[in-house]
Protein 1
Amino acid sequence: MPTAVITGASRGLGAAVAHALAGRGWHLIVDARDGAALQRMVDDLPNGGSIVTIAGDVADPDHQRAIRVAVDERGELDLLLNNASSLGPSPRPTIAATPVADARQVLEVNTLAPLALTQRLFEPLRATDGVLINVTSDVALEALPGWGIYSASKAALEQLTAVLAEEEPQLPIYSFDPGDMQTEMHQQAFPNEDISDRPLPEEVVPALLRLLDERPASDRFQASDLALAVPR
């Protein structure tokens, strides 16, 4: 039974991936800031694999250590999905108006926490020839007003992912851009808009699963790209 660590698993894309992998019989180690929401997600999972929940702040070193302990107790790791993200203040401020404390929090969660978890879990991931997926965003590639700190955090994560892929060519390492979705965080980004035209996270999951199943060369992928042939 393969094992996955999924951060930010209480809702949105993280919860949708957890549901899909549980249905495949995976063992899951999941985290989220909101322990009650995380437990509700777990209670709704299909029968199949077993699950360990670890509630807390993914940027907290003690929380990261607890995730590593859970992996060591399991004895293997086949997927690390760094999905947890922080938008920052909503409505989204300009760069000039963004409090430095808020910027620091976004960078801690979106950039430094995935880096720290990758470092902590790279040994067991390498031992199984596992897959690393860092969830990114299209705003990492664009200069859009109001998205400054979030964009910067995701751009930094993409560069870290790309460099790591060059340093560790034996492992499949991906930046995965799911695109717009109907999620709580996306609604916070557009507090006065109707986002019901965006796809549900469950509609994006098959694209991510395709990376797991086909394991193409390390690269950046958009969910929409994976509707086409994946390059070998």
Note: The two ends are 26 Å apart (CA to CA).
Protein 2
Amino acid sequence: MAEEFGSVRAGSLAADHVIADLGGRTVDQALEAGIDPKDVWRAVCATFEVPAERR
């Protein structure tokens, strides 16, 4: 996430932004709940419309 969003913004997004595709969890909460990091990244990419070449 830091590579895509920058370290400060990535940390903020991971802690604060609730993503519907993660069951209404933040990135941090999803990872703590045991959701596969690849699935978390896919949800982040979909939510923030990360271009396919950077996914």
Note: The first helix runs from residue 2 to 5.
